[in-house]
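Workshop exercise sheet. Pairs work together: one partner reads the sequence aloud, the other fills in the structure field after running the prediction. Swap roles for the next sheet.
Pair: D.N. / O.F.
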Amino acid sequence: MLKWIDDLYTGPGIEDAMEVIQAVNNGEQEEERYLITLPTNPANLMDFFKADALKNPHVYELCPAIIGVAVSKEEAMELSKQILMECYEKTGGFHIKDFIENR
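Structure field:
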């Protein structure tokens, strides 16, 4: 089962976050969606990838907590920037995992 944060970040193209969560959890990838996650590599601040990558069992099994969803790569980049700026404004740093866990 995928792990989603409670107060999920969503891009402006996402109308209903719960609908997206259910669709992704059920493997229904009718639309292009990007997921923003905590990093799998400690050198990264965050990761993002197309939701349909979860069809690969290895990707699904290793997927870290999902912190945001967007409808395009560009929107995912902007949403990532928004998360980074919020983290920096509130903590003075870029420790995304700590920021998300203590929000």
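Discussion prompt: The chain has a mean pLDDT of 94. What would you look at next?
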